[in-house]
Structure formats: structure tokens, C-alpha cells
Amino acid sequence: MTADRAQTLHPRAAATRADNEGLISETSALLNHADSGLAQESSGPDGCIKGPDATTKSIGDLTETTWQHESKVLAGYSVPMVLTFLLQQSLTVSSVFAVGHIGTTELASVSLATMTANITGYSVFNGLATSLDTLCAQAFGSGRKELVGLYTQRMVYFLWLTTIPVGIIWFFLAEPILVRLVPDATVAHLAATYLRIVVFGAPGYAAFEAIKRFVQAQGLFSAPLYVLIICAPLNASLNYLMVWHLQWGFIGAPLAVAVTHSLLPIVLVLYIRVSKTNNAGGDAPSCWTGFTPKAFRNWGVMIRLAIPGLLMTEAEVLAFEILTFAASRLGTTVLATQSVLGTLVLLEFQVPFALSIAASTRIGTHIGAARLQAARMGLKVTLFAAILVGTVNMTLFVSLRGVIPSLFSSDPEVISNVASIIPLFAAFQMFDALATTCNGILRGMGRQEMGGYVQLFCYYVVALPVSFSLGFALDWQLWGLWTGVALGLALVSAIELAYIFHTDWERSIEEARLRNQESEI
């Protein structure tokens, strides 16, 4: 699995003239702010959204919006985010490609190292940073835009503190732990070496995850994409340069990743400054009022959302890694089949995960602005989009079941195994899309704790025990393992949907207001 499965889209539009009611601009860009022809929304003191196409209108203290308008915004947020996630995944994939041609031992080592880094580091940073999906979006929607920068500062410092225990694990404890888990001592040693080097890029990666939320809250979902359009090719070039051209071999790969991770937040900050100078979108001047001592105190609100967010992320990441370890006990062919399925999960997951990030930002903004009807409409559009994404993914896998396996392997047995499981895997897509999107909705509402409890119960009390029972006791092998996971995701979807549909939106709005008040003290 990927670090972003655990795991990290907005643009410029032509500004409309505010009418005589004194409307305040609410930046909510829809796609590529340089090229999109979509117009920026405006919000009034009563929290009303008023678009250039008159798709929203204010009635008293409520705001009405249409499904067409919300669909347009959601699509504009999601599309660049899909590309962002794919490019961010390429940073570690480049290491696999570069090192894989050295030898099988090196390939196994870098795969083990990236999996370990994902579980113990990157997923931790991503999970903790999800609290900003709630805080920054709700602060921006409420008009308390200065809090967006304050929350971001606090999260950067918090994540940097978190890199200390992560660094201790990677630098000092990784090798003795891996030696006990992995039979091949050479593989364990090389994997630990990789972690000792790549740890120097961890502060940069952590800062990037926090600052990414800063721009996303403003509607600039394309900003991280532009950064990765620069850094991803640079990372691939550094891998080639260090591993092959300079002949540094295996250590060149983690060096390249560490350098790239360190550059990510720097390039993103430069982009924000350039955007501010060129008035390219967002509202950075209002959101960033400078460094402040307030960033070093009053972390309680942030941590109360960050810890459940971490549980939501790690519960799923660990479950899928455990599934891979379980598959390894069923033989080499089964493990190869699981590797293909894991890669397919990584690819298909990018769309629903992008949708979940877009949903958390959009719904969080509506809640922060106390727009009840708009939040409900955003919820309906998001869930419809999730069903659509799940249906498309399911249809593609079923239609291409005879083609997909041969793209990953030439082994007839592996091809046959993958093809036989794809119908179950296709059904998995609908549950995955719904569960992932519901997680994003819960983050927008500030209900991470609910998502954390549900994930822990469904994966570790239901999914994995069923997987092991069917896979080993009944000898269903991979069919059994994936049946348990599909059941777990179906249960996650059902419970979270029931909770969301019975939520008290007025309470969510009041909680958002209280969080903003408490955080500025």
C-alpha cells in the first residue's frame, strides 16, 4: 500500500464584481487557476455564496446552492489532486526503478524500506495533518482567515516534533527490528541503511503535508501539483545521477528522495509568494499574517483532531500491509498475485482519495460559514460522485479482467490467479470509494474520532479475522483474504453513512465556531 492511503486539489478564476451589499471574496478556485474559465465565488456577511452563474442565493441566514454548482467545484478540486497524488507516489517509485536494476537483493531492500517508512513515518505525518482538513477549511469558511496560517504553523511545529521519534526509529532501531522480522540479514541491513539516509528528508516531507493544507483551504488545489511537476522529474533525474552516473549505487536512491522531500516545502512556499505577488488566486495575505508566538501554545484543539486522524490513516495502512504479509505465507505465486492486486489498489485509490480531500475542504468550508443547505447539498453531490467513481472503477476492472493481469506478469499462474480474483476485486471498488469518501466527509465535519473507532473495529475485529479464517482455515487463500477486506470496507461504508445521515449539522457548525474561538486565545 501507499503512504497516502493512509494519506494529501483548487485554482484561480475571474473575480466577479460584488454588488452593493458589500460582499467579501471567498476564494474557492475550481481548477488550474491560470487556465480555468470558472469564476470565483463571493460570500457575504451572512455566509451566502454568490456565483457568477447565479447558482446560489441567500435566503435569510441560509444559503441555497445547486447540485450543478457543487459538482463543478468538486470536480475542479479533485482533478488536480489525482495528478498530485500520482506524482507524489512517483518519488518513491523512482527509487524502486533505479535500484531494481542493481540486483534483486537491492530491490527487495528498497521495497522493505519504503514499506517501513510508509507505516512508521509518512502515514503518521499524513494522518496527523488531516486535522487541518477540518481546522483550515472551517476557519477559511468562517471568515477567520488568519487562523488558517496559525493552524498551519502549529501543525508544522507539531510534525517536526513528531520527526524526532520517527528519526530515532529509522536511524537507530530499524536494523535490529528488521533483522528479527526478515530472514535475509543483507536485505534488512540495506533497508535500514536506506532509512538512515532518507530520514534527513522527513522534516521537509512533514512541512509539505502541512503547507499543502494551507493552500487547499484557500481553493488552490493545483498548487501542490505545480510543485510536484517540478520536483518529480527532478527526483527521477537525481536518482539516475546518484545511483548510476555518479555510481553511488544503492545509497544514491535514498539521497535523491531526501533531497526532493527537503525541496518540496521550499518550492511550495515560493509558489505561494509568486501567486500572492501576481494575484494568481487564493487569499494568502489574509491567511498568513506572519510568524507568531501563538503558534507555540494552545495545541489542544489541533491534537484532539490529529490523533483520531492518525488512527483513521494507520488502521487502514496497517491492515493492508498485514494482508501482504499473510499472502507471503501462501507461497511465492500467491505473493506475486497479491503484489499485482496491491499495485492496482494503489492506482484506483487515487480518484476516491482525491474526492475525499475535496469533500473535506468543501464541506468544512460550508460548516465554517454556517451554510446548512450548502453543506447538505455538498454531501449529496459528494456521495453521488463516490458511487459514480466506484461504478466506473468496478466496470473497468470487470471489462479488462483478461487484459490487466498480463500487464504486470508473464507467469501464466499469476495471470490466472489475478483474473480469477478480479470480480471480487471489482466489487471491492464500490465499498472502497464510499468508505474513502465518507472518511473525507467526517474530516470536514470534524468527526475524526468517529472514523478512527469505526476503522479500528471494522478492520481488526471483523475484516482481518474473517480474512485469516477464510484464507487459511478454509483454504480459500487470496479469495479468503480479500473477502474479509471487502467485508470490512462494506461495514465501514455502512456505519459511516448511517452516522453522516443522522448527523446534527447545527452542532457541527457550533463546534466549528467554538474551535476557532478556542484556537485564537
Automatic annotation (TrEMBL):
**Where, subcellularly, is it found?**
Cell membrane
Residues crossing the lipid bilayer are: 155-174, 186-208, 220-242, 248-272, 381-400, 420-442, 454-473, 479-501
Taxonomy, superkingdom = Eukaryota
The protein's matches in InterPro entries, at most eight in alphabetical order, are given as: MATE_euk, MATE_fam, MdtK-like
Topology in the lipid bilayer is annotated as: Multi-pass membrane protein
Keyword Membrane assigned to the entry: answer is yes
Q: Name one GO biological process term.
A: xenobiotic detoxification by transmembrane export across the plasma membrane
Q: Which GO terms describe its molecular function?
A: antiporter activity; xenobiotic transmembrane transporter activity
Start and end residues of each stretch annotated as Disordered: 36-55
Q: Name one GO cellular component term.
A: plasma membrane
Question: Which UniProt keywords are present, listed alphabetically?
Answer: Cell membrane, Membrane, Transmembrane, Transmembrane helix, Transport
What family classification does the UniProt entry report for this protein? Belongs to the multi antimicrobial extrusion (MATE) (TC 2.A.66.1) family.
Q: What is this protein called?
A: MATE efflux family protein
- Source organism of the structure: Exophiala spinifera
